[in-house]
Design a protein that fits this description.
One of its GO terms (biological process) is peptidoglycan catabolic process. The protein is an alpha+beta fold. It has one domain. Strands 1-2 form a two-stranded antiparallel sheet. A hairpin with a 6-residue loop joins β1 and β2. The longest helix is centred in the middle third of the chain and has 19 residues. It starts with a helix and ends with a helix.
Length: about 100
């Protein structure tokens, strides 16, 4: 399993524009996210499809999760919105393609 120090570069990225429940901007956000994750993954040697063990740096709590996920995987929030969240499996697969 990958540790928190290797995962931190892939913390979820969000803006208010993409955290609502509409489909506005979803295609553009998905394409940008795929490109960004692809670059960071290659640079850091990570597999976007992998599962990792996240260790909370504040309280040490551990959680097995995807390398690429949304804020809601870690915190009590709706971000990145259901539309984008539903696309994360596709984003992970696309970012993993070489």
């Amino acid at each position: 399993m990958t540790t928190y120090s290797q995962v931190r570069v892939l913390r979820p990225i969000s803006t208010r524009k993409y955290c609502d429940r509409s489909t506005r901007g979803a295609a553009e956000a998905k394409a940008s996210l795929i490109r960004l994750i692809k670059v960071i993954s290659r640079f850091e040697g990570l597999d976007p499809r992998a599962r990792v063990t996240y260790t909370n740096p504040v309280n040490g709590t551990k959680k097995d999760t995807n390398t690429v996920g949304g804020h809601r995987d870690y915190f009590d929030t709706e971000c990145p919105g259901q539309v984008m969240y539903d696309l994360l499996a596709e984003v992970r697969a696309a970012a993993a393609r070489r």
